[in-house]
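I'll show a record.
***
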Amino acid sequence: MQQDTVLVVGGGPAGLAAAANVNSAGYKAVVVEKEDVLGGAPILSGYAKLVPSGEWAKDAIGRMVKRVEDDANSTVHKGAKVEKLEGEAGNFTATLTNGESVQAGAVVLATGFTHFDSINKPEWGFGTYEDVLTTTQMEQMVASGKIACPSDGRVPERVCILLCVGSRDRQIGREWCSKICCTVSANLAMEIKEISPETDVFIYYMDIRTFGLYEDKFYWKSQEEFKTKFVKARIAEVTASGDGRLLVKGEDTLVKRPIVIPFDIVVHAIGMDPNADNPEISQVFGVGLEKHGFLERAEQYTNTCGTTRKGIYSCGAAYGPETIDDSIAQGAAAGGRAVADLHALVQKAG
């Protein structure tokens, strides 16, 4: 019976929370994940400690994965996608790329985001110099427990993190703030310092947006306890110096003077792009996209977690840049909303 089943597309934090909430209400959750593992970006990209909990991603997200996989009301399809969806709210049939068919009363799209590709910001050195990394690559280094220059293995004396790479940049069509990069970068600076106390960390920023309670726990703590140096600047380019280090060139916008600073490692704080699969997702599920390419919300005050198609819900970074904690909360809300609407359908029919 499809009205006791919710199809959850995406097995990241939001999708796992949606599935768990569906299960806890006594309904069946069918999770379809295109990758071969569950956990989404925190697992696939090898995140280190999560903001704001400070818990290792593999442990925190691992518990979420286990909760869903161990539930008898869950069915999980890994390495599969939905290639066709037919029907209407209360009576959907999904055809999967693995040949399976799923009948469900509702669908939750927890399809997340794609990390910005720093190749699209070539003047800042990614893809040209080995020691120019992204925040996800730096997180993997932190998770390994050793901070070293990829080019020659030396311990870096100076690391800089460049904020807003692929965010707030109209020149490359990224007109949105990715919401969490400032906080993640301040946290990353502290993690680098914990592993490599002799390394100095600089953060170059346009504005700092450690919103809410993150201001004290990350922005001030990284400065006062870990001596992270924040520099308000516009960065023009990253080039090589004669001694094998990197030169960060730009303007210190507080004192209005040019800067040319040598670093051993330069880190791009990459933003959140719409899921690269969103055009396909829009077509398969019959849902709209907003102007930047994220999923379009329904009228959110009375149609919470809704999309432009009845019976199909969404959550988390599928809608736009989002934190992991808020994605989890929205996933739980989407699962609850799907179950509530299915319950109402059954009551009405009965």
Q: What stands out?
A: The radius of gyration is 22 Å. The helical segments are 13-24, 41-44, 57-69, 135-144, 181-195, 214-224, 278-285, 324-349. The chain has eight helices and 17 strands. The CA atoms of residues 232 and 255 lie 9 Å apart.
